Amino acid sequence: xxxxxxxxxxxxxxxxxxxxxxxxxxxxxxxxxxxxxxxxxxxxxxxxxxxxxxxxxxxxxxxxxxxxxxxxxxxxxxxxxxxxxxxxxxxxxxxxxxxxxxxxxxxxxxxxxxxxxxxxxxxxxxxxxxxxxxxxxxxxxxxxxxxxxxxxxxxxxxxxxxxxxxxxxxxxxxxxxxxxx
Amino acid sequence: xxxxxxxxxxxxxxxxxxxxxxxxxxxxxxxxxxxxxxxxxxxxxxxxxxxxxxxxxxxxxxxxxxxxxxxxxxxxxxxxxxxxxxxxxxxxxxxxxxxxxxxxxxxxxxxxxxxxxxxxxxxxxxxxxxxxxxxxxxxx
Lengths: 181, 140
Known about the structure:
The complex is a heterodimer of chains A (about 180) and B (about 140). Chain A is an alpha+beta fold. Chain A has 5 helices and 4 strands. Chain A has helices at about 15-25, 30-45, 90-100, 105-115, 125-135, and strands at about 5-10, 65-70, 75-85, 105. In chain A, strand 2 (about 65-70) and strand 3 (about 75-85) form a beta hairpin. In chain A, helix 1 runs antiparallel to helix 2 and helix 2 (about 30-45) packs antiparallel against helix 3. Chain A is elongated. Residues about 170-180 of chain A have low confidence and may be disordered. With about 140 residues, chain B is α+β, with helices and mostly antiparallel strands. Strand 1 of chain A pairs antiparallel with strand 1 (about 1-5) of chain B.
């Protein structure tokens, strides 16, 4: 068996490991160490896969997901699709500490974060905007659509399932004998 | 995505994740990271695990929960991680994913699904045998 304490994290994000270890050395809890370690990657935008300025969605917006779990109480705080708040794991920790919920998502999670004192700020950067404009220039390739028209392997959206008529197409309405003026 | 597991010297365990998700995702898409049992899972009585990769696939198999349950049944961390990868592989042979695992004694391991572009997986370890964070690699 390996000696305790132990810090283990995915990918070679060394500064995050160091920060978590440092937190333990200063007497912090395991929960604090996870929060501080992951927050380093949010600030340093580790590999462009953590934190602001990465992975823009189809509309060019960066949103964040994070969770934190306490193995003693089995308590969890998590945020999904968090908008305009940089410290996602910090918000997840507040969900754990100040609510009995587990997961808050989207714009409402942002409102919760603001109520907890987190600043609202743009999560886009020149880099994420360039990523997005290059993607648009490549006919939106790759994307995560399938079974739609136009062909998502060739064109940008908006996409529709093949069965749905275009909005401006004459829509066939069933005559409803009970529906009349 | 970063997934982290911390075991305090008192044996208390915590786990967490943070990510900005998938490039060019459909707005509203959330992957495995913030889902307890998928992105990460911790239980002082069994251990903890965290996963990374294609979250749309990973989250369907709750990899972190499953790895902890394997360790609860006595599997060592490396085997627990590998068994989770194998489970997913049966359905999605070409999925991109990796899992880190640690049990209550501080033993740890990792496993990943081998792809031509992903032959090895790097993770970080720091414990009292080391004077600094050490990068370890596991062959997928």
